[in-house]
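EI: anyone free to look at a 78-residue chain?
SC: sure, send it
EI:
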Amino acid sequence: MPNQPKTPNRPIRIPDGIWVSTQEIAAKRGETASAVVRADLTRYVRRHWRLLSADTRAWIKREFPALYDEVTGRGVET
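SC: here you go
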């Protein structure tokens, strides 16, 4: 498919006040609300990385090396 997004759509519930405010602030900063949500979730994973199982950490390292590098700050061994 020509315009298929790289990531799956994840339906989540966010109160209207938070969503509208996020969209307005993000637009004024030249960002998207999606980018803000991704950045916040990445920080959340980084903060709680040790709570993930070894299998999940290995899967992230293997399948998403850029994410692994970002959340661990270690880089991917080559």
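EI: Residues 54 and 60 are 10 Å apart (CA to CA).
SC: 👍
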